[in-house]
Amino acid sequence: MADQATVFQAADLSIGYRTESGLLPAVRGATFSVHEKECFGVVGESGSGKTTLAMGAINYLSENGEVLGGSSRLRGQEITSLRRFQMRRIWGSRIGMVYQNPSAALNPSLRIGEQLCEVARRHLGLSRRLAGEASREMLARVAMPDPVAIMQRYPHQLSGGMLQRCVIAMAMITRPELLILDEPTTALDVTTQAVVLDLVAQLTKELDSAVLYITHDLAVVSKLCDRVGVMYAGEFFEQAPVRELYHAPLHPYTLGLLGCVPRFDPEGGKHLLASIPGSIPRLDRLPAGCIFAARCPFVQDRCRTSSPPLREVRPGHFSACLRWDELPTAAEYARSTPAVPAHKEERPEVLRAVEIKKSFPPTERLFGSGGRKSMSVRAVDGVTLWVRKGNTLGVVGESGCGKTTLLRVISGLAPGTSGDLLLDGRKLERSVQRRPRKVLKMLQMVFQNPEASLNPRHTAGRAIARPLRLLAGLSRREARGRVSELLQAVNLPLAFSRRLPEELSGGEKQRVAIARAFAASPRIILLDEPLSSLDVSVQASLVNLLCELQERNNVSYLFISHDLAAVQHLSHWIAVMYLGILMEWGDAEDVFAPPFHPYTEALLSAIPVADPDIRQRPIRLEGSVPSAANVPSGCRFHTRCPRKIGRICETETPPWREGRNHHSIYCHIPLEELRRLQADTIARTTKGDG
Amino acid sequence: MLRFITRRLGLVLLTLLISSVLIFLVTQILPGDVARAILGRFATPQALANLREKLGLDRPLLVQYGSWLMHYVQGDWGLSLSTGEPVFPLVTTRLRNSGMLALVAFIMYVPLGIILGLFSALRRTKVFDQVVSITSLAFIGLPEFVTGLVLIAIFAIGLNWLPASSAIRPDSGFIAALPRLILPGITVSLVSLAYITRMTRSSTATVLETDYVRSAYLKGLHPLRVLFTHVLRNSLLPTVTVIAVGIGWLIGGLIVTESLFSYPGLGRLLLFAIQRRALPLLQAITLLLVVVFSLSNLLADILYALLNPRIRYT
């Protein structure tokens, strides 16, 4: 690092927020630097202070925020003491910003061109015409098709991926020395995320910017960053070059975080995830000593009284742990948890869905349709699948693929248009209202957002008791006893039964929702992205919980998610869904090994794997999922397929090609051919290899 | 855009048609016998029958409705039953007067409301905001006959700056009438001002908190440019529609204020028609008010579509 000039440097930076309960020290003594052509990643869960750190470091805080001490320097110039009018010459010019949600970061009522031009005019002093040209050029650089037309568009007319490219263009048009990216891909689909990440990597190298990359996603960091800092409750715990951090972290929190991420590891057997118990301490009640001590598996008595500052313990590697030299490696730590037994034997079917279809009719309107011919939306267009007893079927796909609708059809909340549902071989009514209680009891659901699925006025105990009384027919007294058993089963203290949802954290709420789903002793539980709104450490403990409950109760799961790693970890069977139909279907092991369906292949190559040593062949899907109101002819993936073989893909529907053990792929390309083409889609490079 | 407006116009016409049926039915059928209503309890059967024939009340309902609507559309609104003068010029003069009062009030409260709301939003943690907020709440709560009387007591009786009565000659010009328009104008303004202020404040405060305003600041733009190009365009959207919808109320809804100040506007004429059971007059005014309200709603829709790129052509 010595040969690279330092672009940005924060030294002992502390930031606080004034609140009614006093001054909250949101960031304490943060020190980091970003060098030329370098990408420095800041990783942390929600509440870690990573965004506050970035905003404070560039002297942009809300009215109640304040830099309490320390300094931040841009090319040696101290900026935290600068006034607003002075900062205005730096923001947008020497420092560029890209935000989490591109559709919120762009003004909805201004054309894209105007939003880009105003930066060029303000900082580059260009005329309106020249600014337009500069904007066009920049849009072309971020690989936008037809920049001239894009500039005339309003943000709502573009997709999320295109918007984020516009925001990146806006941030880069002045060729800033420092580019700050705050969770730039969190709101995007995986295939879009991959394209945006490629773009960021390429542009920053071309334009010589230093990058500060803020995220909760360890996998993204491992693909993009050169060095990484791990933050927790406002402090840096560790800073290291990316490869060192992933293989030999020198702080238990980093170790814990890495353990929380399901590893993409086809060979090593499945283990429970190494979750981090407890929760982040409150900023107004920080404990003495190491603030992580209460959750640390390696804690010693001395940790509770003293904590060392972040210091260089090995060349270029900083840690704030007393026991940094006594920790296991990441791989050892991941294997230290109990193994999950693999169920190889054929089990009886619990649920079978046959040719499920669900379409939504076009909206009717008075006085003409406004010139557009609306079509009915075929959200689910003929899906056949089955779930085996005590097994998990994972359904993956990007947003808009119809996976949530599929789940709602099966649950009966949105009765299907056609197709049959069989539970234990008996036909199910399509609509939930017409299903007898006995059936309702057997089929339960956990929703994505526990905030919305728990009644805010019902205590946790009442929420869990409801299905017990209603479906299982228990008396009040029996139900009370069972509630405490269930709370115990989901690792919540008994006292929580009296709490209202607002008194629970997100993870605790989801545990209550899971307890409620288990209350009626169901045969199968439908899980609708139950983890996606939660932090990684909370996700890990819920994944473990779901695994344990499944072992104990022999219940089946139908789990839908866009997170391939979580699906792989939890599922025995996997279905890959695209535009209303399945593209691939099979045993988890078979789906994650060649031959892949080209769409599965693209997903696997797009999803960052939390391991800097795994090289994924860059297969990028352009464009977004076509509308389900206007499904492409032939193979419906042909418009984006990188392996399209010709006219046949556009005109004829592909055959289902079946491999071993029901593994099926919906493609015109023969399985052998696919296997040959895809041998190196995902490969482990040797360690130390650049 | 054209298609959007055509469709909205179609909806307006449908609204008007349905309203005309309702107005016709309510005024023609519900109060019982029209002829008796006009001639009084002691009218002879012969006189009633004569009047019915004269008014065409003996014809089938559908025919009556059809002929009423045809005449209405052509501007033949009949004669007033109580005074015998033609209804059409009477109503249109009053409409003009109501328009003058509306204009005066509009000029007073719209700019002021927007400015007050904007400043409250920009100073939303400061005392200024709280003062504006509490005052505007108070004015929303106070009925016009209270604020109007207070204004008369202070400015007309106490200070003697302005006339207490606004009983202008129905055909007097705008400039001549202006001094008599100010007090009722202020009375009307106070309520609307409070609404506009609160609306502007809340939508501006919301917009100021958005990510795109943050990103505008972090582009290094001047605060005034952020305010004018990034904030106002979005935050004034709801306000503009509230203002446009309010025009209908300004023209046709000022019964209390017009009565209080004896101002010859539509509202007072409506009250007169109700009290005197002047049915053709009542029908004419009511349908006219439906037109006015529909058009102001249409205006609000069109303005919203013009200003908001997301809603266009839908």
Outline of this structure?
In chain A, 31% of the residues lie in helices and 23% in strands.
Description:
- The complex is a heterodimer of chains A (690) and B (314).
- Chain A has 690 residues and is an alpha/beta fold.
- Chain A has 4 domains: 6-225, P-loop containing nucleotide triphosphate hydrolases (Rossmann fold, 3-Layer(aba) Sandwich); 249-335, no CATH class; 349-362 and 373-576, Rossmann fold; 593-684, no CATH class.
- Chain A is built from 24 helices and 26 strands.
- In chain A, strand 16 and strand 17 form a beta hairpin.
- The longest helix of chain A is centred in the N-terminal third of the chain and has 18 residues, at 190-207.
- Chain A is globular, with a radius of gyration of 26 Å.
- The two termini of chain A are 16 Å apart.
- The model of chain A is unreliable at 686-690 (pLDDT under 50).
- Chain B is mainly α and 314 residues long.
- Chain B has a single domain, classed as Orthogonal Bundle (MetI-like fold).
- Helices cover 77% and strands 0% of the residues of chain B.
- The model of chain B has no long low-confidence stretch (mean pLDDT 82).
- Classes of the chains: A alpha/beta (690), B mainly alpha (314).
- The A-B interface holds A 58, 60, 63, 87-93, 95, 97, 99, 101, 104-110, 114, 118-119, 122-123, 154, 156, 167, 170, 366-368, 370-371 and B 3-4, 6-7, 10-11, 125, 210-212, 214-222, 225, 229-230, 233-234, 237, 307-310, 313-314.
